[in-house]
Amino acid sequence: MPGRQQRAGGYAELVRLGDGTRQGDGASFGVMLLGDSGVGKSCFLSRFKDGAFLSGTFIATVGIDFRNKVVAVDGVKVKLQIWDTAGQERFRSVTHAYYRDAQALLLLYDITSKISFDNIRAWLSEIHEYAQKDVVIMLLGNKADMSGERAVRTEDGASLAREYGVPFMETSAKTGLNVELAFLAVAKELKQRAVQAPGEPRFQIHDYVESQRSKSSCCAFA
Ligand SMILES: Nc1nc2c(ncn2[C@@H]2O[C@H](COP(=O)(O)OP(=O)(O)O)[C@@H](O)[C@H]2O)c(=O)[nH]1
Ligand SMILES: [Mg+2]
Question: Is a pLDDT exceeding 80 seen at residue 83?
Answer without folding.
Answer: yes
